[in-house]
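Exercise 7b. Backbone tokens:
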């Protein structure tokens, strides 16, 4: 069953004033592994996820690259920062997905997938950062890293491994360059992606 996948990041002696630079560094590592260097959307939430956003903007393809750069978007979104706010930034990367036509073998193509980078103010949602991280990366469903509902042939295994390699490369770059104290790759169900991946590939071999 598909599961939501997250990467939570905690920083030593963290303060709200340090959040913009930390967010930009995360997005920098994302671009380094082939993700977009532009932000596609940004939203500011007050108090909790149940509240109406106080600020929101979608950056379309025709938007100037400088205007949609992580630094510019973070600065605009956090212009009136408060301790009980959370900031969500959407970026895009491309992962391998299967495309099956009737009577033909499965073809694989790159497809854009949204990734959200969320920064938590210390008072947002009653201190949600304690369990979610000062910054949380939301990868969406773990489907591209497993494809549990299809039979994996040799070509499919290669594509899945390439998707996983991009995820691992990103998390390793965060560990090396992000200035974090702790990181945690986790799923909503609590199941380990690594264990599920090993079991999945064992079904092929």
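Sequence design result:
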């Amino acid at each position: 069953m598909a599961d939501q996948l997250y990467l939570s990041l905690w920083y030593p002696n963290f303060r709200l004033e340090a959040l913009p630079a930390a967010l930009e560094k995360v997005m920098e590592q994302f671009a380094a592994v082939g993700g977009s260097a532009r932000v596609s959307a940004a939203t500011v939430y007050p108090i909790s996820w149940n509240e109406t956003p106080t600020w929101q903007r979608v950056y379309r393809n025709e938007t100037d690259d400088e205007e949609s750069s992580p630094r510019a978007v973070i600065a605009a979104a956090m212009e009136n920062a408060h301790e009980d706010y959370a900031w969500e930034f959407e970026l895009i990367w491309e992962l391998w997905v299967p495309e099956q036509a009737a009577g033909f073998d499965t073809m694989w193509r790159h497809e854009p997938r949204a990734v959200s980078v969320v920064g938590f103010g210390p008072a947002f949602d009653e201190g949600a950062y304690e369990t979610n991280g000062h910054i949380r990366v939301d990868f969406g469903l773990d489907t591209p890293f497993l494809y549990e509902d299809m039979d994996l042939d040799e070509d499919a295994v290669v594509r899945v491994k390439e998707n996983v390699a991009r995820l691992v490369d990103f998390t390793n770059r965060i560990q090396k360059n992000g200035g974090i104290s702790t990181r945690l790759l986790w799923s909503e169900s609590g199941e380990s992606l690594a264990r599920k991946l090993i079991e999945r590939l064992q079904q092929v071999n």
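Instructor comment: The CA atoms of residues 82 and 198 lie 43 Å apart. The chain has a mean pLDDT of 90.
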